[in-house]
């Protein structure tokens, strides 16, 4: 896993999470800018996942590579699904969906890093 790219994903996700949770507390529905910013985070996550997949083929494989692939699929799908659900709920709860998704993404990235550190022999 790419260290600086992972840190960038985590930092952006946490900043967005704070923004979405503040907007939820102020009873604001998600705007197009909110949805596009989450999709931007999703694009950043997609780059991280592509780097991780390339690492599976040219680097050491994690001992639990099936679990690693499962986390990759979940991680790359998380932001687009959150945007879809937030569009279905055009109230403050849609903004909360974005906030919770932005809080979960750093956890997924950290878990990917943990799994990637344990390489098979």
Brief summary:
The protein is built from 4 helices and no strands.
What features would you describe in this structure?
The chain is mainly alpha-helical and 121 residues long. The mean pLDDT is 91.
Helix and strand arrangement:
Elements: H1 3-25, H2 32-58, H3 65-88, H4 92-117
Helix pairs in contact: 1-2, 1-4, 2-3, 3-4
Q: Which terms would index this structure?
A:
121 residues; mainly alpha; 4 helices; 83% helix; elongated
What is the chain-wise order of helices and strands? HHHH
Q: Radius of gyration over alpha carbons?
A: 15 Å
Q: How many H/I helices?
A: 4
Number of strands: 0
Distance between the termini: 18 Å
Query: Level of helix content?
Result: over 70%
Low-pLDDT segments, ≥5 res: none
Largest β-sheet summary: none
Q: Which class do the helix and strand fractions yield?
A: mainly alpha
Rounded mean pLDDT is: 91
Question: How large is the share of residues in beta strands?
Answer: under 5%
User: Could you say which overall geometry the principal axes of the C-alpha atoms support?
Assistant: elongated
């Amino acid at each position: 896993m790419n260290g600086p790219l992972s840190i960038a994903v985590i930092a952006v996700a946490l900043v967005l999470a704070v923004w979405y949770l503040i907007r939820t507390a102020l009873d604001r529905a998600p705007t197009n800018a909110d949805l596009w910013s989450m999709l931007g985070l999703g694009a950043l996550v997609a780059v991280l996942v592509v780097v991780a997949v390339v690492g599976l083929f040219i680097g050491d494989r994690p001992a639990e590579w099936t679990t690693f692939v499962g986390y990759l699929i979940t991680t790359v799908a998380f932001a687009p699904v959150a945007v879809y659900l937030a569009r279905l709920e055009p109230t403050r709860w849609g903004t909360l969906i974005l906030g919770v998704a932005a809080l979960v993404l750093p956890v997924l990235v950290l878990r990917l890093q943990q799994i990637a550190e344990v390489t098979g022999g």
